[in-house]
Amino acid sequence: MTMGDDTPVTSLILPVLIRPILSQLERRDVVASQTLRAALTKAEQTHPGLTYDLVMGIIRKGEINVNMNESILRLQGAASDSDLIEYRLNRTEDAFQELNKKSASLKRILSRIPDEITDRKTFLETIKEIASAIKKLLDAVNEVVGFIPGTSGKQAVEQRKKEFVKYSKKFSTTLKEYFKEGQANAVFISALYLIHQTNQIMITVKNKCE
Hints:
Layout: H1 9-26, H2 30-46, H3 50-61, H4 68-76, H5 94-110, H6 113-116, H7 120-145, H8 151-181, H9 184-209
Helix pairs in contact: 1-2, 1-3, 1-4, 4-9, 5-7, 5-9, 7-8, 8-9
């Protein structure tokens, strides 16, 4: 059963929005925070999209007008390593730590898009940074593949890499369309897809190596 809608923002609500809130709650009540964190994590694993539905229900009830794609993309840049723990590798070898750095760097740059998209000169520089970060991430993935045991494990990571490249190309196409038509939300969604695909690479490497 999949809840939520069919966009990458669904998978990012828990790590990017909910967990930082629970981290703040932890300063006041550790037990309550940890109980909620465990319950919501388990619920999201059982019913993907549940936390998205929860948040959207609150927004509708409060009659709040908010662009969730823009908001989650912006919040991605503020999320801490502890909030994004499932997307970080624990292996200490340089190749794995480099992949941690490159994936975090790409997501951080993408999170700046909402603040920079209206300034053409700044945004063009950001696009160059994104292109460079994508290349560095792919290079880092290639370095890690050699550590993955078994043919099936390597194939799984290679498949994730192909998916990432596909969405990178879609992101490039979306940018071209943006400069013609000015649809910023399409850029936000495409950037979120790239973040989601980056996370999928990290999860797959983690599952095959740890």
